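Dear colleague,

Thank you for sharing your sequence with our group. We've completed the structure prediction you requested, and as agreed, I am returning the results in plain text so they can be pasted directly into your records. Please verify that the sequence below matches your submission; if there's any discrepancy, let me know and we will rerun it promptly.
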Amino acid sequence: MKGLLGIEDLTREEVQSILDRARDFQPREERLRKLDLLRGRMIVNLFFEASTRTRTSFEIAAKRLGADTISITAQASSVSKGESLVDTLNTLAAMRPDAIVMRHAASGAPHFLARYLETPIVNAGDGTHEHPTQALLDARTILDRGTPLEGSRVAIIGDIAHSRVARSNVHLLSKFGAKIVLCGPASLLPVELKQIAPGVELTTDMREAIMGADVIMMLRVQLERQHEASFPSGEYFGFYGLRLEHLELAKPNVIVMHPGPINRGREISSEVADSQRSVILNQVENGVAVRMAVLERVLSDARN
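Please find the predicted structure tokens below.
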């Protein structure tokens, strides 16, 4: 595949292949050494939005594979001087990197640029559209806990309207036959999301969403993307914050996920975030393995 722009266009087999390869890169003692699978390759990380987990894990993934990396933020680039996105990417492409990992606030920005550049682009999150490697690492984490994707009930709760994580997970999980329920305040739960994949349920009732769930995936309230307060901040946790009593409604072995950064006391209680049901740190760890698998695949295909 030339780059990775989203989950929507991948086949189930392509997704499974990445998940299987990521398992090979998970941190066993013998895997912590630096590999030379991408020795001599150059990867540019271009982040127009703030990021800790995604940017750092892409850097670590590339370095563990033996690649060289350069990380650029919007503030440190000529974009801050008024240069257009196309000119910035053309300038970088002229320097002949082997791949560009890109995060941008505009939905569709990586797709737009991929039509003009020969350099493979990996989407590290575009606006409210997709975050493909997050969905992949989420799936890898679910599988690691012994929960099959097919037939599992996954409750995705929170700011659905602004969540690229939710959209990528719906695309991925639906390919494997998972039962998906999206839950949040009515103002953050667009009805058109039912059209993303067949069988997606929508509800504003958190208890209904969690009932019988195998996976509870909490989302961050993205205040920076909201033009007006959609829900009084003091009330949000009372209606949509995950607390220990909620877990009693789910399956006994339910796992709790969150893409981070978590806001304790708004989306999730500390008791749940730090409990044995939480796999939040496992998600972070799997981010490196999944991104190693993606970079290897993208750059191997680009070489052929």
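Summary note from our side: The chain has a mean pLDDT of 90.

Kind regards,
the structure core
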